UniProtKB/TrEMBL annotation:
Protein name: Peptide ABC transporter ATP-binding protein
Domain of life: Bacteria
Domain ABC transporter: 4-252
Protein topology in the membrane: Peripheral membrane protein
Organism per entry: Pseudothermotoga hypogea DSM 11164 = NBRC 106472
Biological classification of the source: Bacteria, Thermotogati, Thermotogota, Thermotogae, Thermotogales
């Protein structure tokens, strides 16, 4: 069942350099209890998309629709958002250290969320938060509860962020590169814990990442974003077995693999273009090894193929895949 439906979302900013079209016509749905990964390089618009869903983007020109359980999130007030953000839809940020206030104990910061959203007294909030710390495997939870963020490791803080995100048993957790700042071994532990708790809490997740290894670990479906648009949608197995869009293929090929030892690593030529000046036609054409004449002139619309969907002229009639 659909929990969230985003339709033709555009998020533009007026800047001194011109109009930044950070998100430029993005549509997707999130179903109950599924994990949707949104993948792409930095600057592709994935973080702006989720911050807009949470009503955290200021001074932007927003159009399109974000429907959550029948409520149009682009139309509600900040006060109404307070009832949804952190309670029904919560977020785990990339940098655990900067997400906590260094002046307060982690316990106090957890309790604040619990008391605000669950309307419970201090004693019950403390018990709930200590129990959550145990669930995210913080050793000596009662003692750690009264410690400050600087007394914790990055991995511990990230697990506490997961605890806070799940405190209110939300419908949706948005995780923005939650393991990027962690060592690889800690990353795996945090991801496993996250997956286990997601199942237990029956939460839907939007997972933002640039790391396809992480996608393979967590996602049910994957949307690949490039230059403010979604260029491919697929289920996770198909995406790895049969990628369609040249950009997705480039991302997959540029992952570190054993056979690349002592060889030059494949990479996608060029850089993501500036959002004030997206290229004409297909926005990937200046970097695409398969670009054709039509790609420079006309923007490809998405076509369906074997249950996936791709925005590329190669898959339109007459395209030379
Ligand atoms: Fe490459 Fe053309 Fe497809 Fe864009 S539409 S990805 S330029 S082949």
């Amino acid at each position: 069942m659909k929990l969230l439906e985003v339709k033709d979302l555009k998020v533009h900013f007026n800047t001194l350099d011109g109009l930044v079209k950070a998100v430029d016509g993005v549509s997707f749905t999130l179903n109950e209890q599924e994990t949707l990964a949104i993948v792409g390089e930095s600057g592709c618009g994935k973080t702006v998309t989720v911050l807009t869903i949470l009503g955290l983007i200021k001074k932007a020109i927003v159009s399109g629709s974000i429907l959550y359980r029948g409520v149009e999130l682009t139309k509600i007030s900040q006060k109404e958002f307070e009832e949804i953000r952190g309670k029904k839809i919560s977020m785990i940020f990339q940098e655990p250290m900067s997400s906590f206030d260094p002046l307060y104990t982690v316990g106090k910061q957890m309790m604040e969320v619990a008391m605000k959203h669950l309307k419970i007294d201090e004693e019950r909030a403390r018990q709930l938060c200590v129990d959550m710390l145990k669930k995210v495997q913080i050793p000596l939870a009662e003692r750690r509860f009264d410690e400050y963020p600087h007394q914790m490791s990055g991995g511990m803080l990230q697990r506490i962020m997961i605890a806070i995100a799940l405190l209110t048993n939300p419908d949706i957790v948005i995780a923005d590169e939650p393991t990027t700042a962690l060592d690889v071994t800690i990353q795996a532990q945090v991801l496993n814990l996250f997956k286990q708790l997601q199942k237990q809490y029956k939460t839907s997740v939007i997972f933002i990442t640039h790391d396809l290894g992480v996608v393979a670990e967590v996602a049910d479906r994957v949307h690949v974003m490039y230059a403010g648009k979604i260029v491919e949608r697929s289920d996770v197995v198909k995406l790895f077995k049969q990628p369609l869009h040249p950009y997705t293929k480039g991302l997959l090929e540029s992952r570190l693999k054993k056979e690349y030892k002592n060889k030059k690593l494949p990479f996608i030529e060029g850089v993501v273009p500036p959002p004030t000046n997206w290229p004409s036609g297909c926005r990937f054409h200046p970097r695409c090894p398969k670009a054709m004449e039509i790609c420079r002139r006309e923007e490809p619309v998405e076509v369906q193929l074997n249950g996936s969907s791709v925005a590329c002229w190669l898959y339109h009639e007459g395209g030379a895949r």
